[in-house]
Amino acid sequence: MSPARLSANSAAAKIKAGELSSEALVQACLDRVSEREPEIRAWSWLDADAALAQARACDRAVGPKGLLHGVPIGVKDVIDTADMPTAYGSAIYKGYRPRADAACVSLARAAGAVILGKTETAEFASIHPAATRNPLAPAHTPGGSSSGSAAAVADFMVPLALGTQTGGSTIRPAAFCGVVGYKPSFNRVNRAGLKFSAESFDTIGFFARSVDDIALLAHVMSGQERLGDAGLREDKAPRIGLCRTSRWSQASSQMREVIESAAQKLAAAGADVELVALTPAFEQLHEAHAVIMQYEAARATAWEYRVHGDLLSPAYHQRMRAGLAIPHERYEAALRQAESGRQDFADVWGELDVLITPSAVDEAPLGLENTGDAVFNRIWTLLGVPCVHLPFGTGTAGLPLGLQVVGRRQGDVATLTCARWIEDRL
Amino acid sequence: MSPARLSANSAAAKIKAGELSSEALVQACLDRVSEREPEIRAWSWLDADAALAQARACDRAVGPKGLLHGVPIGVKDVIDTADMPTAYGSAIYKGYRPRADAACVSLARAAGAVILGKTETAEFASIHPAATRNPLAPAHTPGGSSSGSAAAVADFMVPLALGTQTGGSTIRPAAFCGVVGYKPSFNRVNRAGLKFSAESFDTIGFFARSVDDIALLAHVMSGQERLGDAGLREDKAPRIGLCRTSRWSQASSQMREVIESAAQKLAAAGADVELVALTPAFEQLHEAHAVIMQYEAARATAWEYRVHGDLLSPAYHQRMRAGLAIPHERYEAALRQAESGRQDFADVWGELDVLITPSAVDEAPLGLENTGDAVFNRIWTLLGVPCVHLPFGTGTAGLPLGLQVVGRRQGDVATLTCARWIEDRL
């Protein structure tokens, strides 16, 4: 088996044990990139020699080694890197080289990671799509805005990648590409050096091919507990709420079936599963999300709009105009709704450990001009709660389906623990 | 009178009416800078020719004009500017020129403002002081970390300036320099392009010489209502809570006297004034603030610490070490305390419009090595509520005292309205 197919945990363990060099691992990833990238277009910047030089430096290093020592990671191109160009998915920033690494990149490097390259993103992590194709079916979108990170991990080009989510930009591409995606609670991953879209929602998320790899990266970034450190794996079966949300009818019948079937399978495996309904107030959070996102995004890229408007896509122009037209009072009202929603959500839980709910309306749609609908992501992003996408089942187009595991705010370790329990049983 | 002494509102009105050119106004400010800067050192970067070129472009402009057309503003040097170096108060960034303007700078320019230059800041808006001196007594600190912005406005070098507050970095220097300072609610001024210190608290704030000027700038930045637009000036007398906080004994006797005397004067002018006590839980927010600030700051500057540690001050190294030593669980617990505090604070209000409380422990202390104590600022920053400093009275060293007006979260217009009522009567 090519080392490119190893999990991050296995690769790190083999490197630590001297059974694998970082150079061999990175070379295997680069070989996969060489083979597949002309079709998939996951990378906005990748310099093989620079990546190998980082890997050789890891192999030469003496002294204590970090938890990601020698392990390559992809970085969404809305996150700054001091040694690689960072274009935010926009022609305005073509060739731009930031002065500093973003905090999350620096923390990954401090743990020994090799930054393999920058992954494609929709323009300013918004809606104008990247050129990336779904590695499982290149005529289909990989989802967005973290298109390249999802595709690169799904296609075994890299075991880990960083993305972001403001609406559904981590969970949806994870779903469309069939990998594990994680949008942490607010305040888990420092955002210094992230190009802001809507600061009330922008969250740095991760892509991997297992929950254990996600948990490793989360530990590196935040210091939160790793899974298994405290016998969590052997915990009793979780109490799961099946949450259809007010938008259940927008999910395809095959998506609804896969969620119901996952619920049955988990119940059969010993989980307590019950239906959970959200109050009608949560439905209003869709509108509040749109108002806050558009209001803030229109201000965050005020310079780009004023000085380089000719280089923005028509779709971005439309978003800017919509955002600038929102009266401050409406934005304030939406902030109040969001705050109430966060307080009300605490009452949903009772004895439950996690909710399960769709990650997307269906498998990845055909075509590259649209990255899909965030209808099953927005309110969780607004609530600031942890979300994990787990692949499960296949749709009629042969593309992956799956479910979203949603936890309590700041209950990330418990959520990942339940997600791993679910992953093991699906 | 020199145009440098005009308020922003007056200057904008005169420019609009053709009674004053932006060039004449900017030249007057530059003359003041020439005269005073060798002693005060408020500016980290100022190019007179570039400022005059902006002013002349305003004077030549045809078509509709923004609310700040031709009015100069100073920008704290932790806020990015595309046409001026931005050093974040650190030798690491000497000569660094960002690619883009921060959102707040671009919004000011869109309203016609002239960016006069960059104002001195403590290293990464933390504690290692800038070289700035208090314009009222150059052997005394101007406060920090927004040292240059406070000093420049106080010294009539510029009518408006942008600062930031993570602990007390806007309100305290405003107090020490005797100008009006405003730390808005969270989410009022977009933070894209701000160098983060602690993202849970970092707030862009303003300096001016009147509440009306603060309100004008707040309207430009957020679209929030301007004062007087809806007859607010003639509102009935406010209901004011005198809030000594648990740290009252840390205020000097002259500071305590000035607050009590302000309360009496306002009551005599018709305000309802009552004592308001905070529950003991609020005292714990001081510790929660320190934990969150240090944890986040240590991650926000991870790159600087790892790559350029030799260029950080010893004080910053100490903060980094303290922040990196905080376990994630402690940070999480502090976030929960902050969240509870925000909910509990809603119960303090009853029928009150605003609180008044000290802005600082005393007048500006002697010496430049320490920017003063944020003990009367931290919990309001953590709560995310609007704060306005108003100068009132003079201490034994001949330096200004004053009071802080604190409002409800997102109640910024009401708070500024009350602050103006109070300003008029003090």
Q: Main traits of this protein?
A:
39% helix; 11-stranded mixed beta sheet; alpha/beta; Amidase signature (AS) enzymes; homodimer; 426 residues
Could you explain the architecture of this structure?
With 426 residues, the first copy, chain A, is an alpha/beta fold. Chain A has a single domain (1-426), classed as Amidase signature (AS) domain (Amidase signature (AS) enzymes, Alpha-Beta Complex), CATH 3.90.1300. In chain A, 39% of the residues lie in helices and 14% in strands. The first copy, chain A, has 14 helices and eleven strands. The first copy, chain A, has helices at residues 8-16, 22-40, 48-60, 103-110, 147-154, 171-177, 211-222, 253-268, 280-300, 302-307, 314-324, 328-345, 378-383, 412-425; strands at residues 43-45, 72-76, 114-119, 160-165, 180-183, 203-208, 239-243, 272-276, 354-358, 387-394, 400-406. Chain A has an eleven-stranded mixed sheet, sandwiched between helices. In chain A, helix 9 packs across helix 12. The A-B interface holds A 82, 93, 96, 99-103, 105-107, 109-110, 187, 190-193, 195-196, 199-200, 222-225, 296, 299-304, 306-307, 327-328, 331-332, 335-336, 343, 410 and B 82, 93, 96, 99-103, 105-107, 109-110, 187, 190-193, 195-196, 199-200, 222-225, 296, 299-304, 306-307, 327-328, 331-332, 335-336, 343, 410.
Query: Which word captures the global form of chain A?
Result: globular
Oligomer: homodimer
Structural class by helix and strand composition of chain A: alpha/beta
Radius of gyration of chain A: 20 Å
Note the main sheet of chain A: 11 strands, mixed
